[in-house]
């Protein structure tokens, strides 16, 4: 079983190198998008390269939190995978601050046993745990985060609310939300590559939404023939409860929960805050 890992990163190049090193078993491929706001040089040093296994996006996007640029960066990775002509069984979307909780053998065994299922977290909107009318404000108003910046975009949305200006959701589709990260079959990802283009109703509409990376792919897939293959579990350990960051930056005191988790991957980690937890996980995985 072969995997392609699509990795979005913007900091801590040594974590990227360690992530790739830990997940590489000679059959996996890695496609890396480095945020265009940062210097790519530290990320592409020779020690990070594995010939014909690690590819860096030339079409880099300047990513804004909450903006459609998050989707564009992911699509840049998907397009690069397709362009190489490499065929795999599963494609996993990670960030450079992710890390596996299981070794490659366990991960591959899981996907062999569940081959054909697509793993993505999703729920219908409105969603009670999201602010802004259950998250519907993300869709109802026109957000210009990439063009205007977050604060200016919020100001413009408030003006829209005062004037009663709302957007019409594309007919024939139901909106969904969920976690940004997923593990999808090669066929599913190629469906995304073919259908998520300028001119497609959902793609054009979500260009001006708020935090579309938590809605777009869910909406595309649940409204497609892939719906029957979706498993509502993205296999990621993410702590949205304890803080002080949301999601929490995982630390060594999270180690017992991480090693007992049934999840395959976890996020997020930051070596500038706590390096010990990743070191302990790697030692555990390599046993």
TrEMBL record:
Q: The organism sits in which domain of life?
A: Bacteria
Tell me which InterPro entries the record gives. Glyco_trans_14, XYLT
- Chief place of localization: endoplasmic reticulum
Which compartments does it reside in? Endoplasmic reticulum membrane; Golgi apparatus membrane
| Topological relation to the membrane, as annotated | Single-pass type II membrane protein
- Write out the entry's keywords from A to Z: Disulfide bond, Endoplasmic reticulum, Glycoprotein, Glycosyltransferase, Golgi apparatus, Membrane, Metal-binding, Signal-anchor, Transferase, Transmembrane, Transmembrane helix
rRNA-binding recorded as keyword: no
PANTHER family attached to this UniProt entry: XYLOSYLTRANSFERASE OXT
User: What is the name listed in the Swiss-Prot or TrEMBL entry for this protein?
Assistant: Peptide O-xylosyltransferase
Q: Which organism does this sequence originate in?
A: Parabacteroides faecis
């Amino acid at each position: 079983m072969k995997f392609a890992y699509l990795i979005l990163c913007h900091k801590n190049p040594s974590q990227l190198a360690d992530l790739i090193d830990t997940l590489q078993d000679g059959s996996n491929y890695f496609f890396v998008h480095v945020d265009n706001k940062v210097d790519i040089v530290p990320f592409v040093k020779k020690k990070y390269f594995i010939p014909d296994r690690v590819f860096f996006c030339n079409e880099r996007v300047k990513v804004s939190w909450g903006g459609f640029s998050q989707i564009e960066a992911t699509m840049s990775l998907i397009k690069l995978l397709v362009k190489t002509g490499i065929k795999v069984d599963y494609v996993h979307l990670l960030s450079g601050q992710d890390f596996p909780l299981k070794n490659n053998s366990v991960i591959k065994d899981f996907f062999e046993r569940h081959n054909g299922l697509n793993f993505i977290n999703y729920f219908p909107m409105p969603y009670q745990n999201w602010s802004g009318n259950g998250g519907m404000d993300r869709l109802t108003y026109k957000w210009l985060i990439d063009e205007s910046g977050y604060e200016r975009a919020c100001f413009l949305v408030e003006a829209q609310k005062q004037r009663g200006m709302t957007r019409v959701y594309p007919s024939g589709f139901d909106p969904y939300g969920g976690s940004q990260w997923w593990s999808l079959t090669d066929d599913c990802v190629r469906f995304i590559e073919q259908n998520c283009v300028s001119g497609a109703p959902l793609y054009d509409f979500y260009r001006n939404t708020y935090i579309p990376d938590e809605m777009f792919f869910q909406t595309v897939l649940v409204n497609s023939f892939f719906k029957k293959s979706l498993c509502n579990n993205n296999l990621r350990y993410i702590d949205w409860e304890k803080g002080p960051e949301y999601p929490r930056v995982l630390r060594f005191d999270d180690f017992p929960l991480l090693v007992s988790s049934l999840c395959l991957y976890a996020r997020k980690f930051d070596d500038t805050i706590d390096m010990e937890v990743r070191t302990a996980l790697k030692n555990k995985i390599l046993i």
